[in-house]
What does this fold into?
Amino acid sequence: MKKATSKIGRKIILAFLFCFLSVLLFAILSFQAHREIGHRLRIVEVADDLVNNILEIRRFEKNFFLYKQEGSLSEALSYVSRVEELYKKQEQETTRLAQESKGPAFLRMLDRYKESLVKMQSELSRPGATPLPFQVSQTEESLRVIGQELLDTAGTWAKEERWK
It folds into this structure.
């Protein structure tokens, strides 16, 4: 009779070990999935922050062209700095977003946009000098094109990462 009890005891222990290992494996896989989802959420948050800040830049750009308020250019420049800072601060996430090839291009676009804003601001702040309409419209067109490229790039990142 003693052998029968030990066989039942072994079966119970084996069943318990099997259940324990199954639960442990499930917990490990769930933890990995949770970490990956959290990481993707952080990336989407970074992409959304970039898009929102670029939209603010575009808003102040448009306010300037509509109402000719020079303060709008200063606000746009401050948001450009925020975008640049956010992009560099979250370098790991943004390089994953940018897929290595678009990252430097994004920073170059941002620099070109910033240079255009500074150029426009300096043209307007010269004492007694009024910029020629052609110069302003040329810079305006440059700002609009580069601004749209920035928005499209960041928007693409947000959409791609959201649906991965």
Q: What stands out?
A: The mean pLDDT is 82. Helices lie at 2-67, 70-89, 91-98, 103-125, 133-162. The first helix runs from residue 2 to 67.
